[in-house]
Amino acid sequence: YKDIFSRVKDKDEIDYLRKKKIGVIGLGALGSVIAAELARSGVGNFVLIDFDKLEVQNIGRHDLTLKDLDKYKVAGVKEKIQDINPLAKCECYNFDVLDDYSFNLYNLLSCDLIISTIDNQEAKYAIDSTLIPAGKKVVYAGVFYNSVASYVIISDKKMTCFQCASNHMDMMAENKEIPDFSTMVPEDEKYTCGMPTFPGGSINTHTSALFTSKIVLNTLLGKRELDGRGYPFNMFLIGNERLYIEENLFFDGYMDVKKYVLPGNTGC
Fold it and tell me: At what angle do helices 201-220 and 11-18 cross, to 10 degrees?
């Protein structure tokens, strides 16, 4: 362990992260990369949740490889984490959070921070309603259709929950303060996943995963970036290509990051 992290200058931070426990819900292209990067950063304890197995069509964007085919993703990611840091501890759960979610999600109450990369909106509300009242922070990350952009939202009791943040995003899209990403999905195409299917698209997805990992580390270490009023940013949009709202340029290309402080709704 000391050899693996021998080049890290701040030994106190490594010792601190080694004791932290992170929950990762959803171990696809985003979640698998985030888990591996947090292991490389010194996080020593994980709770991994995903009900799916790795399939061959996942390989082009996943952090696991062909040798992991037909494994449950939680098992494959656990092996990956322990290949990076053999002392890391992983609890693995193969379940859908919507199946008796209140019981299953109690496994995350021991975590210092939880990350969710799943697409299902109902599942996100289930995660929030179980964990946020208990004082937990949840970092949500996702990729919009065709990987044109991605988002990171930090949900907590003090600032805003995921549903309040989603409502603010809808209003911002209506007011053309941010792009309305839902209109980018072709009407004749069934939208089930925002992950890219074009050459190099996985680079955009993995960039979003790395950005999310950095936000998670800053949150754990008390280094969140603040706005001019002293409030921590709790929503980020990461552009992967030039994007206009009508005539106005919103994203100026790859890795153009917009930061926001979103308040909670009154009475939430």
Answer: 100
Span 175-231, pLDDT tens digits = 999 999 888 777 666 555 555 566 777 888 899 999 999 999 999 999 999 999 999
- The span from the CA of 22 to the CA of 45, in Å, is 6
The number of CA neighbours under 13 Å toward the Cβ of 263 is 3
HEC string of the chain equals: CCCCCCCCCCHHHHHHHHCCEEEEECCCHHHHHHHHHHHHCCCCEEEEECCCECCHHHCCCCCCCHHHCCCEHHHHHHHHHHHHCCCCEEEEECCCCCCCHHHHHHHHCCCCEEEECCCCHHHHHHHHHHHHHHCCCEEEEEECHHHCEEEEEEECCCCCCHHHHHHHHHHHHHCCCCCCHHHHCCCCCCCCCCCCCCCCHHHHHHHHHHHHHHHHHHHHCCCCCECCCCCECCEEEEECCEEEECCEEEEECCCEEEEECCCCCCCC
* The pTM of the whole model exceeds 0.85: yes
Q: Which amino acid is at 247?
A: E
Q: Strand 242-245 relative to strand 248-252: parallel, antiparallel, unpaired?
A: antiparallel
